[in-house]
Amino acid sequence: MKPFWSITLVTLAKDIRLEWRSKDALNAMLFFSLLVVVIFVFSFDPLAEESRHIVGGLVWVAFLFAAVVALNQTWARELRNQVLDAYRVSPAPANALFLAKVLGNFIMVGILEALMAPLFVIFYNLRVLGPAWQLIPVALLGTWALVVNGTFFAAMSLRTRSRELMLPLLLFPVSIPAVLGMVAATTNILTGENPAHFYIVLLLTYDVVFTTACLALFETVLQAE
Amino acid sequence: MHPAVVVTGLVKQFGRFAALRGVNAEFAPNRLYAILGDNGAGKTTLLRALAGLAPPTRGSISMLGTTDLRSVCGQLGYMAHPSLLYDEMSGMENLRYFARLYEISDRAQNNKDRCADVIRAVKLDPSLTRPVGQYSQGMRQRMSLARAILHDPKILLLDEPFSNVDVHSAREMVGLLKGMRDAGKTIFVVTHQAALLEGVADEFVWMQAGQIVDRTKHLARDLNPEKP
Fold first, then answer.
1. Would you say the pTM of this structure is higher than 0.80?
2. Does B53 touch chain A (CB under 8 A)?
3. A165, pLDDT greater than 60
4. Block mean pLDDT (10 aa), chain B, length 228
C-alpha cells in the first residue's frame, strides 16, 4: 500500500504545482462563479427570507458549473504531449492517478467554495437559522460527490472529439441525486425549518457508492484506447 | 538464448483499417533493432503494441517470457514521438516525478542523483531550471530519452528518437544507445534516419502495409545474403 499512497501524493503535488504555475483552472472557475453571483443578484432582488429558500440551489448550481471547468483542465494537461501514455506504461497503479486527480479537484473546488461563500452571504444578506455547523459536512460531501464523478467522467470523455461537451452530458444526469441532496440540505440548514440529517446520509451513501464504482472501473477507462 | 520479444500473428485494427496485418517475429535479447518503413507501414503501431498501449485485436505478444505485458512494464522504457513530458516543469522536475512512479527511490537525494545522472547521460544540464516547454526540439527529444531510460529498463522502445535533432546530437544519442545495447539492453528504434544506425544496429526490420517484409543485417537490402 505504501507505493500507492506515495504515488498518489506525488501526483497530487505535481498537479498542484502545475496549477499553481498556470492557474488555468482556478482563474476560470473563480471568474465563472463570480459572474454567476453577479448575474443572479441583478436578476433577482430577493428579501432575506426568500434568499434563504433559493440560495441553496443557486450556490450549488454555480459550483457545479464552475467545477466542470476544473475537471476538464485536469485531464487536458495529461493529453498535452501525450503524458498520460508515460503513466500508462509505468507500473504505477491506475487508481493512484485517479485518487490524486480527485483530491486535486477537491482542493480546487474547496478553495473556490471558501472564496465564493462569503460573497453569497453578503450579496444575498444571508443569516443561517438552522445549525450552521452542518453546512461543513454538506459542503465536504457535496464537493466530493461532484469531483469524484466529474473526474471519472472527464477521464471517460478524454478521447472523444468534443470532450468539453461530453463531460456535462455525462456528469449532470448522474449528479442529480447528489445535487438534490446538497440543495435540500443547504436550504433546510439556512431556513431551519426541517432537519438536514436525511440528506447528509444520502450524500454520504452516494459518495461511498460512486467512489467505490469509480475506483473499480478506472483502470479499464485509463487503459482503453 | 530465449528471445526477449516474440510476436505471433499480431493484428491491430482501428475500425476497419488494419494497421498491423499478422506480424510474426522473434527478437533476441541484447540487440539493437532498427524498424524501418514508409509512413503508414505500421512501425509506430507495432511499438505501441509492444509497450502495451495498443492491445492486439488478434495474436499475442510475449515479452521477457510472459504475455502479461503489465507485469513487465517496469522493465520497459518507451519514448514516443511526442515528448511525454510536462511542458510547465523543468527536466529535473519531470524526471523526479517519473522516478517516483517507477519507485526508483523514495529518498530524495538518491532520486535526485539518479535523475541528474540520466540527464547528464543525454548531454543536458541537470541544473537547467527553465520549463521543458521552453526547450528546443532537440533538447526535448533528449530529455524524452532520459525519461525513457530513467529506470534502467531491459527493453527500450524508441519512436523517432532522432527527429528534429541535429546530426551531432543524433550521433551522441546513437553512441548512448550503442552503450546500452552493449550493456545488455534490447532496443527497438523506429526511424526514418536509418543511416545513423548503420554499423550500430544488429538488424534492420523492414515493414510495409502492416507486415514485416524483410530483416537484414545491413541497411542496403541488396547486400543482405539472406534476403529472399
1. yes
2. yes
3. yes
4. 91 93 95 94 95 94 93 94 94 95 75 90 91 92 95 95 89 93 96 92 95 90 53
Taking the Cβ of residue A7 and every Cβ of chain B, the question of whether any pair is shorter than 8 Å is answered with yes
The structural domains of chain B, ordered by start, are: 5-84+152-223 (3.40.50.300)
> A1 touching B, CB under 8 A?
no
Q: What is the C-alpha to C-alpha distance for residues B102 and B84, in angstroms, rounded to an integer?
A: 15
Q: Among positive and negative, which fits the CA dihedral B158, B159, B160, B161?
A: negative
Domain that holds residue A201: 2-223
Write down the mean pLDDT value for chain A: 90
Residues facing residue A163 across a β-bridge: none
Contact of B217 with B203, CB cutoff 8 Å: yes
Rounded to the nearest angstrom, the minimum Cα separation between B82 and chain A is 5
Which of B13, B64, B101 should we substitute to test contact with A (largest number of A Cβ atoms within 10 Å)?
Answer: B101
The alpha carbon of B18 is separated from its chain's Cα centroid by a whole number of angstroms, namely: 22
Measure the CA–CA gap between A79 and B60, rounded to whole angstroms.
Answer: 28
- Split into its structural domains, chain A has a count of 1
Candidates B83, B89, B100; nearest CB to A7: B100
> Using CB atoms within 10 A of its CB, is residue B32 exposed (0-12), middle (13-18) or buried (19+)?
buried
Kindly tell me the burial class for residue A165, based on how many C-beta atoms sit within 10 Å of its own C-beta (0-12, 13-18, 19 or more).
Answer: exposed
Size of chain B, expressed as the number of residues it contains:
228
